[in-house]
């Protein structure tokens, strides 16, 4: 890989020039083939090892120069340059952020497998004391999208090596998706731009600080929850708290909704559907002795079951109306659709499991936990089968595991090598499978 990227000194992957990472440890070397794992075909392990420092440098550059959702112009340009240098032809999405790049295969197999990475950062300050700390005030890669982007870039470059030798048995589409962290998100934009045309299955990974580096988490079925939002406004006649009978007591009405509606929802939906409604904001009035005429509350709704996800908007609106009816208040409910649940296809999960066992050894493949967080990878799974896996990025032996969406979030960079290996294996396994 000849790199088109000129890395700043602060982004160098070598501990010789950058000093120590958070916690005092030096940057980890590119990992070799682990015990129990199988070498990649075509001497790719040796090829990747020779480029590992560059890939880690790319990750650090991205981490130091994060871009918010819908503003990922420089990130898109960086990825496009690297792919073009490798002889590929990336296609930037219509808004100028995110891109799609096809790697042509060889032989008679015209099946296409897609691999997706999200590229945007979060509106959080970076509080780590590391040389590659964010240089953009109030913005940082606290969800690992810099790792996702780097892994997919390395995967694409590795698969391009196979394609040049006529050893890629089918086509692979790389999807570098913008705007995963906002609603509306970037996945529908990719789909509208033809990102799934001709695709038989799609795969992705996500950083998991709860798993040690070298581990991979996989599961069949629900992986993440649908994530929606509810805006509630109550209106009524205000007045003096000494005479509540002459008013519509909106604070009382709002409290009834906040307490009763989630409890009623639990009794109206199959508990196996994994429905959770939690209010995160409520406001009504200012003075202690005045009943307000307007009150507002906001809640998130998370659902693991696709059918239940389609049913809950109407059900929640009815439950709110029923609870409010006896209070005399008028309710306005605005239900905002977010993302569907990620439900891993059983065939795709089987391919990922085999790929993970080959990439890191079966003893390091674990069952991934279900997350009630949202992930817009789910939009792709509404159209084609696929699966998402968890990539361990936690330091081995750590007694306290961090979490994503924290300003101190960081990764053990050896995870990049493991991620590339498992994504290469996933693409090859899916192309060889008769399931798609």
UniProtKB/TrEMBL annotation:
Residues 230-322 form the Peptidase M20 dimerisation domain. Signal peptide: none annotated. Transmembrane segments: none annotated. Residues 1-34 are annotated as: Disordered. Pfam families: M20_dimer, Peptidase_M20. Residues 1-14 have a biased composition (Polar residues). PANTHER family: METALLOPEPTIDASE, PUTATIVE (AFU_ORTHOLOGUE AFUA_6G09600)-RELATED, PEPTIDASE M20 FAMILY MEMBER. This is M20 family metallopeptidase. It comes from Rugosimonospora acidiphila. The lineage of its organism: Bacteria, Bacillati, Actinomycetota, Actinomycetes, Micromonosporales.
């Amino acid at each position: 890989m000849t790199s088109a990227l000129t890395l700043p000194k602060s982004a160098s992957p070598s501990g010789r020039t950058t000093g120590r990472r958070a916690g005092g440890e030096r940057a980890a070397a590119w990992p070799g083939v682990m015990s129990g794992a199988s070498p990649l075909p075509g001497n790719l392990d040796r090829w990747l090892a020779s480029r590992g420092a560059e890939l880690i440098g790319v990750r650090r550059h991205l981490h130091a120069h994060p871009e918010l959702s819908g503003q990922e112009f420089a990130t898109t340009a960086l990825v496009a340059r690297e792919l073009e240098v490798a002889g590929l032809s990336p296609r930037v999405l219509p808004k100028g952020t995110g891109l799609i790049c096809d790697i042509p295969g060889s032989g008679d197999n015209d099946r296409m497998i897609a691999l997706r990475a999200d590229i945007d950062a979060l509106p959080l300050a970076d509080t780590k004391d590391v040389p590659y700390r964010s240089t953009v005030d109030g913005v940082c890669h606290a969800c690992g999208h810099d790792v996702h982007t780097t892994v997919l870039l390395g995967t694409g470059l590795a698969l391009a090596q196979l394609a040049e030798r006529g050893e890629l048995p089918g086509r692979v589409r790389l999807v570098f998706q913008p705007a995963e962290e906002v609603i509306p998100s970037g996945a529908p934009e990719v789909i509208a731009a033809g990102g799934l045309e001709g695709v038989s299955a799609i795969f992705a990974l996500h950083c998991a600080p709860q798993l040690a580096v070298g581990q991979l988490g996989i599961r069949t079925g629900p992986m993440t929850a649908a994530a929606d939002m509810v805006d509630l406004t109550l209106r009524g006649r205000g007045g003096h708290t000494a005479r509540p009978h002459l008013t519509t007591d909106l604070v009382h009405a709002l409290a009834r909704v906040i307490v009763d509606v989630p409890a009623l929802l639990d009794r109206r939906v199959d508990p196996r559907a994994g429905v959770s409604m939690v209010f995160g904001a409520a406001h009504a009035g200012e003075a202690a002795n005045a009943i307000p005429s307007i009150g507002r509350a906001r809640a998130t709704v998370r659902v693991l079951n696709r059918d239940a996800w389609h049913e809950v908007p109407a059900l929640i609106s009815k439950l709110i109306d029923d609870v409010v009816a006896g209070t005399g208040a008028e309710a306005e409910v605005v239900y905002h659709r977010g993302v569907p649940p990620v439900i891993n296809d059983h065939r795709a999960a089987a391919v990922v499991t085999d790929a993970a066992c080959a990439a890191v050894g079966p003893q390091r493949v674990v069952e991934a936990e279900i997350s009630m967080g949202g992930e817009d990878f789910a939009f792709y799974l509404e159209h084609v089968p696929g699966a998402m896996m968890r990539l361990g990025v936690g330091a081995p032996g750590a007694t306290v595991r961090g979490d994503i969406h924290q300003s101190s979030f960081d990764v053990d960079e050896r995870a990049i090598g493991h991620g590339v290996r498992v994504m290469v294996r996933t693409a090859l396994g899916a192309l060889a499978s008769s399931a798609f």
